[in-house]
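Format notes (please read before filing issues)

Several people have asked whether sequences and structure tokens are stored in separate files. They are not. Every record keeps both together, in the order shown below: the sequence lines, then the token lines. Line labels are part of the format and must not be stripped during preprocessing.
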Amino acid sequence: MRPLKPLALALFMTALSAVAGSAEPSLVIVEQHGCVYCERWNAEIAPAYPKTAEGKFAPLVRADLREGPPDGVTYTRRVVFTPTFVLIENGQEQARIEGYPGEDFFWPLLTQMLTENTEFAPGAASDAIGK
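Then the structure lines:
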């Protein structure tokens, strides 16, 4: 059983550093317990998100409002509202969406944020299931 512990720790640390310090973009959702709009986003968007071009380009990372940013991530300013969606690249905030305006507005706002701040190129692939 002992050999598995170092291996498990190594895998965890690799996964953590891959998300937090990666040059690849990620989308941090800052949530808090009892947030009705967080719950709506989780019901309406979260199941489809990883299947979309946006979700594949900027994988989702979850963070609790009261715990601050994930390790290796720096926000440009304090997060006050939940949910807040923070686009991260190289561990630094590039842009954010504050609040959840509903499914019909979230996707265009996310696509615009990705297009304006990264190399994301929307196309036919962004018309994924659930959108």
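For reference, the curators noted about this record: Residues 4-126 form a domain with the Glutaredoxin fold (CATH 3.40.30.10). The chain has four helices and four strands.
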